[in-house]
Design a protein that fits this description.
This protein is of the alpha+beta class and about 250 residues long. It folds into two domains: about 60 residues, SH3 type barrels, CATH 2.30.30; about 140 residues. It contains four helices and six strands. It has a six-stranded mixed β-sheet, with no helix packed on it. Helix 1 packs parallel to helix 3. The longest helix is centred in the middle third of the chain and has 55 residues. The radius of gyration is 26 Å and the shape is elongated.
């Protein structure tokens, strides 16, 4: 992120994530002794404060966006690991051409190898972290589908009027769109990182996303019967107590 001397003009403005969720408001900034912006202090919706690295925040005029930490880290690994591979190959070619001594080759190769193994280990740990986030998205989708089913049931039996139903349905529908997009992005990021560890050149993210969307049949969130992972409708049992008259 470019260092903007007017970032303090962002104080009080809303921060959203990449999917439109409101994170909180900019409260202040932490700066290094040299005057470089280091962190953003955010007042969350519940009144608590959090501190976010300025590198994970994109400032674009009045739009302030929190960038996914795992996606940012994955991009770093996807840049650094192939770069080290290219350097190792170049080092090997220099050795074969007798442009460097075997002793120097062995020392530099050892340094590259150590750095590469460290990056691979950290990348594998990140893949496991992404796994957890994908699972969290899947659970959220399931819960939203539960909410949708119960909303439809209550509306069907007349417990919720049309106006309230439409408002609630729109909220759930937008939430489903966001979490499905987030889950798709995480899966693409994970695949990209896994391919790097396997030594495959990654395809552009936009190309991968288009491929996934083309292979995935469209889902109509307005049709409850077609929604994925829908639970069975609840069964309500009325028990008549002995000795009391029925209503």
């Amino acid at each position: 992120m470019s260092q903007n001397p007017n970032l303090f003009l962002s104080v009080g403005k809303q921060i959203k994530d990449e999917y439109g969720r409101e994170i909180g408001k900019v409260a202040s900034f932490a700066l290094t002794p040299s005057g470089k912006f280091d962190s953003v202090f955010v007042e969350q919706g519940d009144g608590k404060f959090s501190k976010i690295s300025v590198e994970n925040v994109r400032f674009d005029g009045t739009n302030i966006t929190l960038i996914s930490k795992v996606k940012s880290q994955a991009n770093v690994f996807c840049d650094q690991i192939p770069l080290l591979w290219r350097k190792e190959q170049a080092l090997k070619e220099l050795s074969e051409k007798k442009k460097i001594s075997q002793e120097l080759y062995a020392e530099v190769h050892s340094n590259f190898d150590g750095a590469l193994n460290q990056l691979k280990s950290e990348a594998q740990a990140l893949i496991e972290e992404i796994d957890k986030e994908i699972a969290g998205c899947a659970e959220e989708i399931k819960e939203l589908n539960y909410a949708l089913v119960h909303l439809e049931l209550e509306h069907e039996i007349g417990k919720i009027d049309d106006g309230s139903y439409e408002t609630a349905f729109e909220i759930i529908e937008e939430s489903l769109k966001r979490v499905k997009t987030e889950k798709s992005d995480l899966e693409l990021t994970q695949n990209k990182l896994s391919n790097i560890l396997l030594g495959e050149a990654p395809k552009p993210l936009a190309e991968e996303k288009s491929k996934v969307e083309a292979e995935t049949p469209p889902q109509d969130v307005t049709a409850v019967s077609n929604a994925p992972d829908l639970p069975e409708p609840p069964v309500v049992v009325y028990v008549k107590e002995i000795g009391k008259s029925s209503i």
